[in-house]
């Protein structure tokens, strides 16, 4: 009940964003297992139409940074509340897809922790080179795969 009250207290746009992610993450989880990582990254990073991309949006503007940080926090909350326990990869794919549909040009980034004895990988979203809603200082991103390379 407390969670529902928190959701109702959100502004309408954030409620819609949150609900979209809660519903999208299980579909992303299933699709990732069915079609593979490369196709899912292509899907998440695809922009539906150039007219929807707001070229004036710069992630370096304070209000845009605050909005993207808020969307990142809502994504993490949606991952905790959904019917599956969404990994950082599932969260990143769903968040990237949703941000691109909203006009924020975003990319999914994959990397590893630079200094750690066990291998620790992480996925995050960047909007024009700025991580969305998290700090990834300890992670070294993999170079972006070349188009056509099969990683599946």
Textual characterization of the structure:
The protein is an alpha+beta fold. It has five helices and four strands. Strands 3-2-1-4 form a four-stranded antiparallel sheet. α2 packs across α5 and α4 crosses α5. It is globular, with a radius of gyration of 15 Å. The termini are far apart.
Number of beta strands: 4
Could you state the order of secondary-structure elements as H and E? HHHHHEEEE
Residue runs with pLDDT of under 50 for 5 or more positions: none
Number of helical segments with 4 or more residues? 5
Strand neighbour order, sheet with most strands: 3-2-1-4
Radius of gyration: 15 Å
Helix percentage: 40-55%
Shape: globular
First-residue to last-residue Cα separation? 41 Å
Averaging pLDDT over every residue, what do you get? 81
Structural class: alpha+beta
Q: For the report, how would you describe the main beta sheet?
A: 4 strands, antiparallel
Strand content of the residues, in percent?
5-15%
How does the SSE layout of this entry go?
Layout: H1 2-9, H2 12-35, H3 37-45, H4 62-81, H5 88-101, E1 106-113, E2 121-127, E3 130-131, E4 139-141
Antiparallel strand pairs: 1-2, 1-4, 2-3
Helix pairs in contact: 2-3, 2-4, 2-5, 3-5, 4-5
């Amino acid at each position: 009940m407390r969670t529902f009250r928190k959701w109702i207290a959100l502004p309408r746009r954030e409620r819609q964003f949150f609900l979209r992610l809660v519903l999208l993450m299980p579909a992303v989880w299933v699709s990732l297992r069915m079609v593979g990582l490369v196709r899912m990254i292509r899907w998440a990073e695809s922009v539906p139409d150039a007219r929807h991309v707001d070229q004036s949006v710069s992630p370096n503007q304070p209000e845009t940074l605050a909005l993207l940080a808020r969307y990142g926090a809502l994504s993490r909350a949606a991952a905790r509340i959904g019917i599956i326990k969404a990994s950082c990869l599932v969260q990143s794919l769903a968040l990237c897809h949703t941000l691109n549909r909203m006009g924020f040009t975003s990319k999914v980034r994959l990397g590893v922790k630079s200094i750690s004895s066990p291998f620790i990988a992480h996925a995050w979203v960047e909007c024009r080179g700025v991580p969305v809603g998290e700090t990834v200082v300890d992670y070294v991103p993999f170079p972006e795969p070349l188009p056509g390379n099969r990683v599946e």
